[in-house]
């Protein structure tokens, strides 16, 4: 599964909505001389073609090969300027930057008083909206102007600006340290998944304790608290402390509900916070609050007050549908969830240009688990092949490992024994190479290897042996992660009790529902 390289300009043109294309043409046509411009001709051609083809562009005679690069760069910039003027994209950050640009132009013209007036008003807006990096830039420009614009209040202004600069610098430094820590922990989570041993745990704990800045909660604003909760959340995920994941993801989401204006200002973080809260609730099997959180999220995303753009649409698609699948996994209602497959496939096709391989492969794995739960092992194998054959998947080695283990089980359940030996060797080599051969996986591979020498009347006894062995690891701090990817215990119980795996999960869900 390889992705053909795409031209950045072509991708940008294809990402435009009908209204954005119309606005671009109006923007270009504001001056009559632009109507026959080469960059507009290039835009119209790129809009028509389905695949980027440089040869076709040159054959159209719009531009010579030597000039094409410059023309593309000019068109790219014009589209961005047009998008910046679009009211849909006029969020608070763009508006603050625009005002800062205006103030800079006035300063350069020597109109110091007018520049300071804009800067003071913009600074207050920036601080109110937790945009403290911009606020700090504004204070620094104010300091420059004050050294050239002499007023009687300069002694007081000097003290005021110095104090403001120090406070904003302190807050920005805390945010920077917390965001660096959160990012590093998130990177480790994507690359290696959860901690695998005491040594891993100590390494992560030492790193976390060393880089976590000492803070006083009462001195933190919205932005600093948000990054603090993120850092704690990723530490909790890495160490598989799912109750702490629930605690800090709840704090993250509650922070937005306590500061509702921040939902529209930081919609991406709002969506991500809800996704991690839902993931935590899934891990601790708190189904009633899971439903409530998911319904509330869908309601807010669908409301007219929630911002609308392509990026948010893509994120909402991933998070809402991924968690709808998780809800059915919790309940064991696999058959009822099959309608989601078409929705997910359509969404992947629609949003593919804005989705990374990792998120797409996670959705494929969930669909594979869905079909496994339904007993359709051949479809399960088809979706797992999309992950196993993906050469571009550089993150989440654990996802790749468990895809292979589930593929082995699905091949066995589908009666495709002739593929099993090859699969076993391939999987074993892969797990050794990834250094990811854990006790649960070892037991599964040993069991599947023995199947060829077992008589039918001995099968139940072998399933029971494996069940007893794996139950030891169900609450093991480092082995339990295997059961997050695949409910092997319920699969074994389905064989021992002679029931469909969906029924076993439904019965368990009824007992632990809260």
Beta strand %: under 5%
The H/E string reads HHHHHHHHHHHHHHHHHHHHHHHHHH
What is the average of the pLDDT values? 85
Provide a count of the helices. 26
How many angstroms does the end-to-end distance come to? Answer: 42 Å
Task: Specify Rg, calculated over alpha carbons.
Answer: 28 Å
Shape: globular
Derived structural class = mainly alpha
Low-confidence stretches: none
How many strands, what sense, and barrel or not for the largest sheet?
A: none
Structure summary, number of beta strands = 0
Helix content: over 70%
Compact summary:
With 514 residues, this protein is an all-alpha fold. Helices cover 74% and strands 0% of the residues.
Characterise this structure.
This protein is mainly alpha-helical and 514 residues long. The chain has helices spanning 8-15, 18-28, 38-48, 54-59, 65-85, 92-108, 112-128, 132-146, 154-192, 198-211, 222-238, 242-258, 261-265, 267-283, 287-302, 310-331, 339-351, 357-374, 377-388, 397-413, 417-433, 439-450, 459-471, 482-485, 488-496, 501-512. It is built from 26 helices and no strands. The longest helix is centred in the middle third of the chain and has 39 residues, at 154-192.
Layout of secondary structure:
Layout: H1 8-15, H2 18-28, H3 38-48, H4 54-59, H5 65-85, H6 92-108, H7 112-128, H8 132-146, H9 154-192, H10 198-211, H11 222-238, H12 242-258, H13 261-265, H14 267-283, H15 287-302, H16 310-331, H17 339-351, H18 357-374, H19 377-388, H20 397-413, H21 417-433, H22 439-450, H23 459-471, H24 482-485, H25 488-496, H26 501-512
Helix pairs in contact: 2-5, 3-5, 6-7, 6-8, 7-8, 8-9, 9-11, 11-12, 12-14, 14-15, 14-16, 15-16, 16-17, 16-18, 18-19, 18-20, 19-20, 20-21, 20-22, 22-23, 23-25, 25-26
């Amino acid at each position: 599964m390889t992705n053909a390289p795409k031209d950045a300009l072509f991708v940008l043109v294809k990402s435009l909505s009908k209204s954005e294309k119309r606005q671009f043409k109006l923007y270009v046509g504001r001056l009559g001389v632009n109507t026959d411009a080469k960059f507009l001709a290039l835009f119209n051609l790129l809009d028509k073609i389905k695949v980027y083809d440089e040869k076709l562009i040159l054959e159209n005679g719009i531009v010579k090969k030597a000039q094409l690069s410059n023309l593309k760069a000019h068109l790219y910039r014009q589209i961005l300027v047009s998008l910046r003027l679009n009211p849909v994209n006029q969020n608070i950050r763009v508006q603050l930057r625009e005002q800062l640009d205006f103030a800079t132009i006035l300063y350069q013209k020597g109109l110091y008083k007018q520049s300071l007036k804009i800067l003071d008003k913009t600074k207050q807006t920036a601080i109110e909206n937790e945009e403290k990096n911009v606020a700090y830039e504004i204070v620094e420009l104010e300091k420059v102007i004050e050294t050239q614009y002499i007023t009687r209040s300069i002694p007081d202004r000097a003290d005021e600006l110095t104090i403001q600069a120090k406070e904003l610098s302190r807050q920005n430094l805390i945010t920077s340290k917390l965001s660096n820590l959160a990012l590093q922990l998130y990177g480790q989570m994507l690359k290696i998944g959860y901690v695998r041993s005491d040594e891993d745990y100590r390494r992560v704990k030492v790193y976390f304790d060393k880089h976590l800045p000492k803070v006083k909660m009462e001195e933190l604003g919205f932005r600093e608290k948000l990054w603090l909760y993120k850092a704690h959340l990723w530490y909790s995920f890495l160490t598989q402390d799912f109750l702490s994941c629930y605690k800090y993801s709840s704090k993250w989401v509650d922070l937005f509900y306590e500061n509702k204006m921040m939902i529209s200002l930081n919609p991406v973080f709002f969506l991500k916070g809800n996704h991690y809260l839902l993931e935590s609730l899934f891990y601790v099997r708190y189904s009633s609050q899971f439903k409530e959180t998911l319904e509330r999220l869908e309601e807010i995303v669908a409301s007219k007050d929630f911002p609308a753009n392509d990026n948010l649409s893509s994120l909402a698609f991933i998070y809402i549908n991924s968690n709808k699948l998780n809800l059915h996994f919790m309940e064991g209602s696999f058959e009822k969830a099959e309608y989601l497959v078409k929705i997910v496939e359509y969404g992947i096709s629609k949003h593919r240009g804005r989705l990374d391989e990792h998120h797409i492969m996670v959705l494929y794995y969930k669909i594979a688990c869905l079909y496994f739960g339904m007993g359709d092992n051949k479809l399960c194998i088809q979706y797992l092949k999309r992950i196993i054959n993906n050469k571009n998947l550089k993150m989440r080695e654990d996802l790749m490992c468990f895809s292979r283990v589930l593929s082995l089980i699905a091949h066995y359940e589908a009666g495709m024994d002739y593929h099993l030996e090859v699969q076993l060797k391939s999987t074993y080599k892969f797990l050794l190479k990834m250094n990811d051969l854990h006790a649960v996986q070892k037991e599964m591979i040993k069991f599947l290897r023995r199947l060829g020498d077992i008589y039918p009347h001995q099968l139940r006894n072998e399933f029971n042996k494996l069940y007893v062995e794996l139950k030891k690891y169900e609450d093991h701090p480092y082995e339990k992660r295997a059961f997050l990817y695949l409910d092997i215990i319920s699969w074994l119980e389905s064989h021992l009790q002679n029931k469909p795996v969906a029924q076993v999960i439904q019965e368990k869900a009824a007992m632990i529902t809260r």
